[in-house]
Amino acid sequence: MSDHGTVAPQHRVTVPAPGCLVALLAPIVAVLIAALVLMVMFHRQERANERNESEALNRTAALARSYARDVLAAPDGFPGREAVRGIAERHDGRLISYTRSDRSLTTTVRFFGEYKDTSMFGVSYSRAYRCYSIVLRVGAEGALQESSTPLEKCDVI
Fold this sequence. Notes:
This protein is of the alpha+beta class. The chain has helices at 18-72, 81-90; strands at residues 93-100, 104-119, 122-138, 144-148, 152-153.
């Protein structure tokens, strides 16, 4: 009581019980852990997808080199359109363009590499398309000379 006969208000500071703090922080910590796990899983899937695509492109490059060797080894000079188409198909390629003259042959072939693309929702198969151009020319001594472009992205036709 105060000097004037009234009750003085008392101010109390209350501290929450330790159980209440745990009840408040537990869902926050659980969400943070779940987010961290999802981020790690996503990162690992992306790395695996990049590795799968790289391996598919390496296989595609090997097919392109093998195609170029077979075209260069064709008997009787420059092979005809159907022969080149057959060589491309044997190497899982598709002939896009064919230009032939007396002294040169230029071809462009589209190759693709198929690979697994993994996501949180499952596995799908993707294709990476690359085009490869080869130019064969009769040189000054009559020998066949080859020049080619590196594999480059090309549209799906």
